[in-house]
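Structure tokens please, single chain.
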Amino acid sequence: MLRDKAPVRRGPAVAGSARWLVVAVTVVGVTALLTPEAVAAAPPIPGSPLDAYREHVPYDMGVHKIARLAAIIAYVLMVSTVVLGVMLRLRFMQRSVNRATFYGAHMTLALSAMIFGGIHGLTFLYQPVWRIGWAQLTLPFFGGVQRVPVGMGILGTELAIAVACSVWLQNRLGYHRWLRVHQFAYVSFALIWLHIFLVHPEPRHLNLVAVGVAAGAGTVLVAFLIRVFPSRSRLRQRAFPSGAGAAR
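Here you go.
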């Protein structure tokens, strides 16, 4: 009977040793990851304060905060512009709100989004680590630091400006041709979203900014699908604008 009870007494000791072994391995692993050599092995984000420190280039945190705040405001305004444009096109809430009011709000939001987007781009002229001049700021895919993500942002912004300026050519182009040009706003949003997603790892991690960026993209996607695939009631309204379709 004593021999049968001996393994039972050793069980807790073995389990305790296994726990301590796991703890020891975890501590050693975390310590190895936090060593200066491990941190040095990870390359810094191009254009980040750590990148500026390693290249012995000054970095202005105030300019960085202005650029970040302007980018967030521009993104929110851009999402609002697209959603309001879809509501204007599909005549949502037309009985409650005057169409001219919708149109004015849509244009105001679009202009504000481009202004804050321009402020975001201009701030990088004052960060030497980005090595951006007027040529790199106006010509897509011409810069050296993060050339592709930055180029997508520049191209998307310039495309949005072209779409906004096409309003003055609406009479010459005709409504339907102008509408096809105006739909490039979705392409502009996609390019700017790719710029936001690729230029910095923050939107690719679980945080408040990432949730906001994903929510904005999802909202625009839903609005785009509603615009492309209108409901049957909307189709009947187009076919019978006088209300005959509703009677059926």
